[in-house]
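step: validate -> pass
step: tokenize input -> pass
step: predict -> running
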Amino acid sequence: MTSIITGDIINSRSLEPNEWMPSLKEVLNLYGTAPQQWEVYRGDSFQLEVPPEKALEAAILIKASLKQFKKMDARLAIGIGEKSFTANKITESNGTAFINSGKCFEQLKKNTLAIQSTFPELDHTLNIMFDLALLTMNNWTPTSARLLRAALEHPNMNQIELAEIFSTTQGNISQGLKRAGHDEITKLINYYKSQITQL
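step: predict -> pass
step: emit ->
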């Protein structure tokens, strides 16, 4: 079983690609190499293959990497299933994970994060939770997005260490993580992992 994240970038033309592309590629590179595990195509669309238990965290990191730039965001569909054909390029591989991801992506309208697997009841529960999480994520400022990304990428760092990276105080980091919904998002990621590992 694997998971495929299909995404595209909202307001990609508001900035030159050389401003936001390195940030997106940094996150994609955390999960593998191009073009086998990930690929950016048509300028502002991409696919990423990750182990199913890491898919939500990857999606949230992708969102955070783009929301560091004003007005930018990503639409993301997580598809979980089998991979029946492996090509040299992720975009040419196939299987139910790819089909589920594509179908899920086509159904995205106002919501910018959803999941489709072969377990409709789990999908229903998770998608309600994602919609609630988006109430916070949609309102991230560039500063909140940068801070949340750093906290997720370095889970063992405490607030004092994060404060050093951002040249600010521990109090500001605490307030910033609260505004970004860090505790709640971490709980959601952990719940998601606990459910996916049972499949």
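step: describe -> Helices lie at 17-30, 55-67, 96-107, 120-137, 142-153, 159-165, 170-180, 182-196.
step: cleanup -> pass
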